[in-house]
């Protein structure tokens, strides 16, 4: 377990890296010359994703040359079971970004022995900086944040997302989305998993669930939610596994109710892959 001083140092460097990547995203904002599909329909990559990743990795490697890295665009450096593994999404919300819709972020998390312990989510377009480290609390623009106190699903506002494989699987989250829309004040689809988690941490949303995610989407946001007093688990309430790509993150009081409702949902057969 790192000391408080070490965690603070990791958080400071993660912040420096996120701000550096964010400056790159600002530079390319509404000024992209290259938008490509990565293979799967709708999964975009732009020159901003790539340049932001180079900028983030430069900062992380300069300070921690011996740490392992899992970054969306360049892949793995070192072993996934390394005691210190950075999970980096240089642009979370590429589809939003490519359309000029300002929900997007640089997401940088640090797994210590597989457990997310440091997280920074930075939206340079809206100027939102979220930071957290195990035992040190969570902040938004350097002010402490806490999850909401909403205790009834009928009073809640949730958020979810739909993975790029949604046309290839019946497990596409469409039925879950409708079911929980019916029971709550609304379910948003933000389009940036790390921003969704930051919004749960800061209390403007009460809960989030999604499947088909990658460690770099989740590592930072999970720390934010936990440090803001929330809960994170698998869909069935069992311990969260970052490599499962699936999680429920809530303010706490709504955790069991959401887990219970997710357990009831049957997929819509009309959206099975053809
Ligand atoms: C995506 C976003 C989106 C989520 C997708 C992710 P990307 O990340 O986080 O909200 O629904 O599953 O892949 O591709 O924009 O980095
Ligand atoms: Ca992402
Ligand atoms: Ca990304």
Question: Outline of this structure?
Answer:
The chain is α+β, with helices and mostly antiparallel strands and 274 residues long. The chain folds into 2 domains: 4-144, Fructose-1,6-Bisphosphatase, subunit A, domain 1 (Fructose-1,6-Bisphosphatase, Chain A, domain 1); 153-271, D-Maltodextrin-Binding Protein, domain 2 (3-Layer(aba) Sandwich). The protein has helices at residues 4-28, 47-63, 94-99, 174-183, 193-202, 215-227, 255-264, and strands at 35-37, 44-46, 68-71, 75-77, 84-92, 105-112, 115-123, 128-133, 137-140, 143-144, 157-160, 186-189, 207-210, 231-233, 247-250.
Note the topology.
Blueprint: H1 4-28, E1 35-37, E2 44-46, H2 47-63, E3 68-71, E4 75-77, E5 84-92, H3 94-99, E6 105-112, E7 115-123, E8 128-133, E9 137-140, E10 143-144, E11 157-160, H4 174-183, E12 186-189, H5 193-202, E13 207-210, H6 215-227, E14 231-233, E15 247-250, H7 255-264
Parallel strand pairs: 3-5, 11-12, 11-13
Antiparallel strand pairs: 1-2, 3-4, 5-6, 6-7, 7-8, 8-9, 9-10, 13-15, 14-15
Helix pairs in contact: 1-2, 5-6
Bound molecules: D-MYO-inositol-1-phosphate and calcium ion (2 copies).
Residues 89, 92, 193, 217 line the site of one calcium ion (CA).
How does this structure look, described?
With about 270 residues, the chain is of the alpha+beta class. The protein folds into two domains: about 5-145, Fructose-1,6-Bisphosphatase, subunit A, domain 1 (Fructose-1,6-Bisphosphatase, Chain A, domain 1, 2-Layer Sandwich), CATH 3.30.540; about 155-270, 3-Layer(aba) Sandwich (D-Maltodextrin-Binding Protein, domain 2), CATH 3.40.190.80. The protein has seven helices and 15 strands. The chain has helices spanning about 5-30, 45-65, 95-100, 175-185, 195-200, 215-225, 255-265; strands at about 35, 45, 70, 75, 85-90, 105-110, 115-125, 130-135, 135-140, 145, 155-160, 185-190, 205-210, 230-235, 245-250. Strands 4-3-5-6-7-8-9-10 form an eight-stranded mixed beta sheet, with helices on both faces. The chain has a five-stranded mixed beta sheet with strand order 12-11-13-15-14, sandwiched between helices. Strand 8 (about 130-135) and strand 9 (about 135-140) form a beta hairpin. Helix 1 runs antiparallel to helix 2 (about 45-65) and helix 5 (about 195-200) runs parallel beside helix 6. The longest helix is centred in the first third of the chain and has 25 residues, at about 5-30. The chain is globular, with a radius of gyration of 18 Å. The termini are far apart. The relative contact order is 0.14. The mean pLDDT is about 95. D-MYO-inositol-1-phosphate binds near residues 163 and 193. D-MYO-inositol-1-phosphate (IPD) binds next to strand 5 and helix 3.
């Amino acid at each position: 377990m790192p000391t408080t001083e070490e965690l603070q140092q990791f958080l400071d460097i993660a912040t420096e890296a996120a701000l550096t990547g964010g400056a790159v995203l600002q530079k390319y904002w509404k000024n992209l010359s290259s938008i490509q599909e990565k293979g799967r329909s709708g999964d975009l990559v732009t020159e901003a994703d790539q340049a932001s990743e180079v900028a983030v990795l430069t900062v992380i490697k300069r300070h921690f040359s011996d740490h392992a890295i899992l970054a969306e665009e360049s892949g793995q450096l070192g072993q996934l079971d390394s005691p210190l593994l950075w999970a980096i999404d240089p642009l979370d919300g590429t589809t939003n970004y490519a359309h000029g819709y300002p929900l997007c972020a640089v997401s940088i998390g640090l797994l210590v022995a597989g457990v997310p312990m440091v997280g920074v989510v930075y939206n340079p377009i809206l100027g939102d900086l979220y930071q957290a480290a195990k035992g040190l609390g969570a902040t938004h623009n350097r002010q402490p944040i806490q999850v909401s106190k909403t205790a009834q699903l009928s009073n809640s506002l949730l958020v979810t997302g739909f993975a790029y494989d949604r046309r290839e699987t019946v497990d596409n989250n469409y039925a879950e989305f409708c079911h929980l829309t019916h029971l709550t004040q609304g379910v948003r689809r933000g389009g940036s998993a790390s921003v969704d988690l930051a919004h749960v941490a800061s209390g403007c949303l009460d809960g989030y669930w999604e499947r088909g995610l990658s460690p770099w989407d989740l590592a930072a946001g999970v720390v934010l939610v936990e440090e803001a007093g929330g809960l994170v688990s698998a869909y069935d309430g069992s311990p969260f596994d970052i490599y499962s790509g699936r999680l429920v993150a809530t303010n706490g009081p709504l955790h069991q109710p959401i887990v219970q409702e997710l357990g009831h949902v049957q997929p819509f057969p009309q959206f099975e892959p053809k």
